[in-house]
């Protein structure tokens, strides 16, 4: 599966949802997710757990950047992931806990994510069809960003895993400095 996606800070998630509703978006669901990321070369791998089904594994590639970008992903069941990546435990990198509220409008999935202390974010995502309409997907996301711009903060150039790792590093550095150790 290939998608085009873009993440931004959400300045006011409640107001964003009210505007989505007013502009005809359909609320799909709210779910809690726990994403455990694993270190693998040349791609990303995460195990997603939620309360509404069995865990799934996502193996994907996506460039960093603040602009909408293509993501190529393969989804595996627990058994298929063991078959593909082996039964031995993989080296865990970081775990993200989030509450995700998903909306749908005109072929665009809009995820409003609450990552606790990391912040609130909105992810615009649309699937690239069999005809390879990546340019149309890109334009749809750019249009949505423009439409909701007053409610969006900075575009996020990295994934949630990198944001979490950076926050952990900043916190460790602050503790080190406050303890008086160089």
Q: Brief overview, please?
A:
With 182 residues, this protein is of the alpha+beta class. It is 28% helix and 45% strand. It has helices at residues 13-22, 78-85, 134-147, 160-178; strands at residues 2-10, 26-38, 44-50, 53-62, 69-76, 92-105, 108-114, 120-127, 152-156.
| Oligomer type | single chain
Text of the CATH class: Mainly Beta
Category from helices, strands and their pairing: alpha+beta
CATH domain fold name: Hypothetical Protein Pfu-838710-001
CATH architecture heading: Beta Barrel
**First CA to last CA: what distance?**
48 Å
Main beta-sheet strand count, sense and barrel state: 8 strands, antiparallel, barrel
Topology order in helix (H) and strand (E) letters? EHEEEEHEEEHEH
Compute the number of strand runs: 9
Strand order of the largest sheet: 1-5-4-3-2-6-7-8
Q: What form results from the Cα inertia axes?
A: globular
Return Rg in Å.
18 Å
Strand content: 35-45%
Number of individual domains: 1
């Amino acid at each position: 599966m290939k998608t085009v996606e873009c993440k931004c800070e959400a300045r006011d998630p409640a107001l964003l949802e009210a505007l989505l509703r007013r502009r005809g978006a359909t609320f799909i669901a709210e779910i809690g997710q726990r994403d455990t990321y694993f270190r693998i070369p040349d791609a990303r791998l995460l195990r997603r757990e939620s309360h509404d089904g069995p865990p799934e594994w996502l193996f994907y590639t996506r460039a960093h950047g603040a602009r909408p970008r293509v993501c190529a992903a393969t989804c595996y069941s627990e058994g298929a992931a063991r078959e593909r990546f082996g039964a031995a435990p993989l080296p865990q990198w970081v775990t993200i806990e989030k509450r995700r509220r998903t909306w749908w409008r005109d072929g665009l999935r809009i995820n409003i994510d609450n990552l606790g202390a990391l912040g609130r974010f909105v992810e615009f995502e649309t699937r690239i069809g069999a005809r390879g309409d990546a340019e149309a997907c890109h334009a749809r996301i750019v249009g949505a960003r423009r439409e909701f711009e007053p409610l969006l903060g900075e575009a996020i150039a990295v994934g949630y895993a990198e944001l979490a790792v950076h926050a952990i590093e900043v916190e460790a550095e602050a503790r080190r400095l406050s303890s008086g150790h160089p």
